[in-house]
Description:
The structure is a single chain. The protein is of the alpha+beta class. Helices cover 41% and strands 14% of the residues. α12 (338-345) runs antiparallel to α13, α13 packs across α14 and α15 (378-389) runs antiparallel to α16. It is globular and about 65 Å long. The two termini are 16 Å apart.
Amino acid sequence: MFLIILNKSNISISSKKSMFQKRITTDYTNILLVSNTEYSQHTRDQFEIYCISSEYSRIFCNKDQFNYTSTENILDYLQANISKGVFVFITKEGLFMGGSLFDVSLSWVDSNDELIISDSSANIALFLNLPISKSALALNLIHNLPYYPFQNIPLWENVNTIQPFYILKCTTNGILETIQTWTPPNLENKVESIYPKIRERLLELLSQNTVSYSEISADLSGGVDSATIIYILKALQANVKLYHANADSEWNSDSTWAKLISNDINAIFTSLPSLGSSGKNFEIDRDYSNSVLPDSPLFWADTEGYVESIENSALTPASATHFTGLGGDELFTPMPANAWSLVRQNKLRSIDLGLRYCLLNRIPISVGTVDLINNTSFTEAVKNEIDKGFGYAKQTRQSSTLNWCGPVTVPNWLTKTYRELSYSALINKLDNTPNSLDSDRSRHQMIESLLFQRHLITQINNIYGVNGMTWQAPFLDVDIINYSLAIPARYRQDHTVTKSILYNATKGLVSKNIFTRGFKGDYSTSLYKSYKEAVKKYSQKVHQFKLVELGIIDADILISELSMPSALHTRVEAFERLAAVERWLRVALKK
Length: 591
């Protein structure tokens, strides 16, 4: 994580913390780059770039890999290929700052005589000792809030964050502007030409990494996505270490499939403790690994122990990379609104497809038809769900899975003051959101979920990559995302195999048996067990919660809910979310 300080003169960095520092003088402004990781300067042809040293050597290892014809071309190449950190790019046309295309962690604070920029809002806040935004903190307690457009509301006052698919530009007169760099691709009906492209890109991407890193490891979850990556790595004759988290329940077949896959490729894997036994999703007093404060609470804390074990197993972290299958579900399985997209992409068959949707989902034709022909705009639909979640609108009928988003749930223990502040913050953000990520609902949902997965990888790299290890998700590669988005909705469903797009793209590389698995493993058993243990541990300590002290949650209402004998899934998820926010707050207040 790093800070870039423009025209900085009145704050002493050494009084904040010891970091790598580099001063940069340009025609646009004077820059001081400060980082926990070493950044280096590189000059090539018509441009100058600052980025993490290892990223530069990996991205620009072959000069012939990209075209230097324009600034726009190089920026596209940087955003498509950078894995960690951000870049500062200087040309005659301006000073550009950005990161990976689907990453939205670029943050900045603008004042009269300086601009502070970082790849983490947490670094800026700690550097300037900024106050925590309690209303933004309260937003993180609301369940099922759409990730877009609310994902980049910073948890500190006065911090700005980049919108998805934009970069920041500083011109010669010092004016800052954001520039959009990506829009979703058009649909392509000739899908047979796309499958080879996905295949070739996966082979190219993983092949490059076998050269760039001497120590390679990967998840072996037992699912399709991780298995696909492993089969391709083995086809490339890569020496790869495999890791598998044991299943918590006898009803979970992930471990059985992991053994079948390892036997098929003649490889062994390291068994790690189950996610239920090693997760930290209800631990509110634990610091984060490597004492790194993330920019937002970790809502994937159930896998923290697993990730830590892999980090600790790396022999040479600076030369190590670990692959995960994140992004595969979003790219290759139908999104909730898939049927809505189907009837619009196949207008001549819309009636037939509509009837089939109603029959398969056992929905009355009158109800299903209303859902399928619904053309409510994105902002209107999200506002309706927010209004219903906050109790400002009546629930006239059950929410449709074909909507832009699911029902928003506001916990009863959120205090009246912060219910009102949260609602105002959400509506204000929505009013300043021009439109959806895509006009097609299922494509919007794909992109939105991919943004979340990219943020997760960024958080993992920020926390567990401080020693140099790189965490990657090949399915989040920009080219693979573009190829998959171009495939119409009807190709995402096949009754003979799961993830038919990925199956068709990897024929001959990956065993077909991987794509015929009936269902994925279930991990709810450990979640309910951990919840009950947490309730027993914290029920008498609720009044000591920092969220209570700040007036954000009502202790008495929360205690009453925790005393309920039934562990409803919504109640479990709400408390799991609360624990993640409470933990983040406690760590932040100690920094």
